[in-house]
Specification:
globular; four-stranded antiparallel sheet; alpha+beta
Length: about 220
């Protein structure tokens, strides 16, 4: 695992109460149920921005960190400045030098960024970090992890100039499994089953470690 989850802020009662404000209702002490959480995350209403995740990726390649730095969230990346590292010549620095990356994002930021980085048109290295984050987040916050989907699932079709074929692969899997996916929620459920099967097949090839990882996720 490459993702270290440092902190998750998920005061769902607070989120629910601010939702109540938007429809002219008073705060209550009632905790929202699982159905409310998932419906709100899929709807992407503004109070989901109160849900936040702080995470770290250690020793990733500099150029991969720069890909992730383009997204709208806070990030803190190891400096390459000459005056911070006396033995470091920035003019000679390689793009694959290892750096540490800390990210801090709300749920909306995550949904937006992961649409791009779970896409198979993204670089393999960036996508692997996105997948690893989704698995790790799913251990403690599955309702948030489950809405992290690639753009083709989100939009029900590939919007890229040159489609990678991943959505067609998903549609064939859905047909084979006879999965219902006529609405967005059922489509997300189908996608999450699809990727868990993909991850299991991938990790199963790595004896011991792979089985442990997928068992933790499930």
């Amino acid at each position: 695992m490459k993702t270290i989850i440092n902190e998750i802020i998920k005061d769902w009662k607070r989120v629910k109460n601010h939702c109540r404000t938007t429809v002219n209702k008073e705060f209550t002490d009632n905790e929202p149920d699982e159905n409310f959480k998932r419906k709100l995350l899929i709807s992407e209403h503004s109070p989901i921005r109160l849900l936040e995740v702080d995470w770290s990726w250690k020793g990733i390649k500099y150029w991969v960190a720069m890909e992730w730095a383009r997204h709208k969230n806070e990030k803190f990346i190891s400096s390459s400045r000459n005056d911070r590292q006396n033995s470091f010549d920035r003019n000679e620095a390689r793009q694959d030098n290892p750096v540490n990356f800390d990210g801090y994002a709300n749920a909306q930021n995550l949904i937006d960024a992961w649409r791009k980085r779970l896409c198979h048109c993204a670089t393999k290295e960036a996508r692997e970090l996105a997948e690893d984050f989704k698995r790790e987040l799913g251990k403690t916050c599955p309702e948030m992890a489950d809405v992290l989907v690639p753009n083709c699932i989100y939009r029900f079709g590939c919007p890229e100039f040159k489609p990678c074929g991943y959505f067609d692969k998903f549609l064939k899997w859905v047909a084979k499994k006879e999965f219902m996916f006529t609405d967005i929620r059922s489509r997300y459920i189908a996608y999450n089953e699809f990727v868990k099967e993909e991850w299991y097949n991938t990790f199963h090839e790595i004896e011991g470690e792979g089985k442990a990882v997928i068992n933790e996720y499930q």
